[in-house]
Amino acid sequence: MSFNTIYLMLMSVRMAPRLPLIFLLMIHGVFSAGWGVNYSHSHICALKNSSVIMSCNYTYPTGYKIEKVFWTKNLGKGVESPDLSEDPEYSQRLQYLGDKQQNCTVRLNHVTQKDEHEYCFRFITNVTDGKWTGVPGMNLTVTDLQVESPERVTEGDSVRLTCNSSCTLTDRATFIWYRNSQPLTERRDRNNELLLQSVRREDAGRYSCALHGHTYISPAVHLNVT
Ligand SMILES: *[C@@H]1O[C@H](CO)[C@@H](O)[C@H](O)[C@H]1NC(C)=O
Ligand SMILES: *[C@@H]1O[C@H](CO)[C@@H](O)[C@H](O)[C@H]1NC(C)=O
Ligand SMILES: *[C@@H]1O[C@H](CO)[C@@H](O)[C@H](O)[C@H]1NC(C)=O
To answer: Does any ligand 3 atom lie closer than 6 A to the CB of residue 198?
Structure first.
């Protein structure tokens, strides 16, 4: 039973000693629903070096005042929650966009594979023990892009190149393709596929893919046409 529930029950009992039990149970229900953090996603898959926005809002019983808000990594039970804005690995890249009322949105820039963790929002009120960590939090996965292509094709073949990510990207961005670093305009079948119909020798080259509006580009893959 949380601190505030006990507190309210004691208060209620003191103020009205003969309150029916049912009323106390009602108070319990209403107020224990008062503490919480709602995340927009339980999992985010982001492209390497991109900026990730983790959106959430938080609630607490009326009358409490928020004194401190911060994001933390879920390091498991019994481990102190670190304030990531004080962690040199994060402090330059983390930007709190929320407020001290209900919005706890944060942005993390230039994500790398090392950032793959479960992140949680924590807030502390002016009341002793009036603290809350929103667990489970939000899992971040960071992916790169890899071109999948047949190694060797024959002139006239129809060739499909795929731009693979290790998780399904949360932001539905548009894929772009390059041959020898030049952007391509060939027709796509599905968003992450490039279809080369009836390949010619001129189609040979180094292919790479990227996401529109992002800096990361996949390693190039060589396509030979014989
Ligand atoms: C929370 O704040 C962010 C950043 O300012 C904003 O984009 C978002 O719309 C806000 N969310 C709500 C529910 O107000
Ligand atoms: C995050 O991933 C870990 C490990 O796979 C899992 O135990 C945890 O439940 C996940 N958290 C959420 C919020 O999905
Ligand atoms: C990462 O992104 C920044 C801009 O957001 C860019 O200047 C930098 O070159 C990128 N780094 C890589 C390795 O793509």
So the answer is: no
Q: How far is CA 35 from the centre of its chain?
A: 22
pLDDT in tens, 177-216: 999 999 998 666 678 999 998 999 999 999 999 999 999 9
Distance from C-alpha of 56 to C-alpha of 167, rounded to nearest angstrom: 22
0.85 exceeded by the pTM?
A: no
| Closest residue CA from atom 11 of ligand 1 | 103
Q: Is the CB of 113 under 6 A from ligand 3?
A: no
Residue ranges, comma separated, of all CATH 2.60.40.10 domains in the chain are: 32-142, 145-225
Identify the architecture of domain 32-142 in CATH: Sandwich (2.60)
Written as one letter, the residue type at 59 is T
Rounded to whole angstroms, the Cα distance separating 185 from 164 reads 19
Q: How far apart are CA 88 and CA 114, in angstroms?
A: 14
- Closest Cα to atom 9 of ligand 3: 215
